[in-house]
Amino acid sequence: MREWLIDLRRQKGYTQKDVADAVGISRNYYSEIEKGKSLRGKVAYDIAKFLNFKMEKFYEKR
């Protein structure tokens, strides 16, 4: 689970659908990303850019 991603999205006032629409993916796929599913570099970059964080955060060991 990527709690940090959920918290960040909520702090910025976005829904899962808002983020998914902004980066061109389905809400279901975005939901899976929040649950920890691996993702492609382009999608990681686009989400990071939209939510304003470094995409490397997706690949940090927890």
Entry keywords:
434 Repressor (Amino-terminal Domain); 58% helix; globular; 62 residues; mainly alpha
Order of SSEs, N→C? HHHH
Task: Enumerate the spans where pLDDT stays under 50 for 5 or more consecutive residues.
Answer: none
How many strand elements?
Answer: 0
**Category by helix and strand content:** mainly alpha
Total domains, how many?
A: 1
The Rg value, from CA coordinates, equals 10 Å
Oligomer: single chain
The CATH architecture term is: Orthogonal Bundle
Outline the secondary-structure elements:
Layout: H1 3-11, H2 16-23, H3 27-34, H4 41-51
Can you characterise this structure?
This protein is 58% helix and 0% strand. The protein is mainly α and 62 residues long. It has one domain (3-55): lambda repressor-like DNA-binding domains (434 Repressor (Amino-terminal Domain), Orthogonal Bundle). The radius of gyration is 10 Å and the shape is globular.
Task: Summarize the structure in short.
The chain has 62 residues and is an all-alpha fold. It has helices spanning 3-11, 16-23, 27-34, 41-51.
